[in-house]
Amino acid sequence: MSAVTWTLQSKNGEARSGWLDTPHGRIPTPAFMPVGTRAAVKAIDSHDLSGVGAEIVLANTYHLMLRPGSSRIAALGGLHQFMAWDGPILTDSGGFQIFSLDPVIEESGARFRSVYDGSSVELTPEEAVRIQEELAPDIAMALDVCVGLPAPADLVEAELERTLRWAERCLRAHTKSDQALFGIVQGGVDPDLRAKSAAQTAALGFPGFGIGGLSVGEGRDERHLALEASFAELPEGKPRYVMGLGDTDGLLEAIARGADMFDCVLPTRLARHGKVLTRGGDFSLRNAESDSDDRPIDDDCVCHTCRTHSRGYLRHLVRVKELSAHRLLTIHNLRYTLDLVGAARKAIESETFPDFVGGVAATRAKGSP
Question: Which residues does 269 contact at the CB level (< 8 Å), separation at least 6?
């Protein structure tokens, strides 16, 4: 039996809620994972993560293999002890980060330059697994090949096939019984290639599946078709993780099609640029209209930031480049995103999910945050 299992709780159309059981606890799905690329979510700590309601976080194999190194993290007790987080952790294999570095992709693995010192680095499927076993997250991801879109169909199919061969190598290399290894579906935006990749990845017997290679330049309709084609070929009783998706519309559209897990840097990145997410629409605190506004960011939000500070004060922090602005806005944006997927779960369970989605869209369309 896998170290991580997913149990379906309820469905409303294709949208579904469930429970993901891991060695470090049970997670309700749909679930959003804050991104702690270098074993830290930018601007906040594990206490803040608990405060916003995070139940699982993501860290990145590529960055941690370079700094400080997986062996050092292992010597310090593994990722959970290293970052003082006792909840579940998932590590991305680094395929997406490698894609952004203009790598040389060969059958043996990927060669690229370190973003830290420019040194030459090679990452093979076997090494990606070994590193993640040292990091010791609950869920590790197989190494895949991510292709930027648009791309020629023959290239997309060739790298899909390579990803499948690498997936088999990852499975053979994986030995850690208290860790689950998820496979990754590729195939660009071609529904037939997505279906092929999903069916063949599912046949390998992974306990869960990432949907990779999206949010890299495709349109929304293309993404929808790719997700639908992938989900149609994946087992009903295993989790589906859409990688790199975190905007309000994108999350709800993917949940409506049967997605269970997400990660994205969007909420935290926007926070560092002074932009906040709200039920009434997103806005920037860099705009002058917040100068004398004594309201919280969102009247309905119960995060520390909204319970403590006004828009006027937060705009002041942003304008003077006070570092605490990054923390406070990150806390709010993560709480907003986690509350959104939590509300989606409740709507699925009460069989009101389509009405919920319509209500979110109508409230945000009013444009008066």
Answer: none
Amino acid letter, residue 322 = E
Nearest to 176 by CA among 144, 131, 212: 131
For residue range 264-293, what is the model confidence (pLDDT) as tens digits? 999 999 999 999 999 999 999 999 999 999
Q: What pTM, to 2 d.p., does this model score?
A: 0.97
Same domain, 321 and 222: no
Q: How distant, in Å, are the alpha carbons of 9, 39, 272 from that of 44? A: 32, 11, 12
Q: Which residues are catalytic?
A: 92, 263
CA 41, CA 67: separation in Å to the nearest integer? 15
Q: Are strands 139-141 and 180-185 parallel, antiparallel or unpaired?
A: parallel
Is 163 found in the same domain as 74? yes
User: Cα separation of 243 and 265, whole Å?
Assistant: 11
Round to whole Å and give the CA distance between 333 and 248: 11
Give the domain extent around 75.
5-264
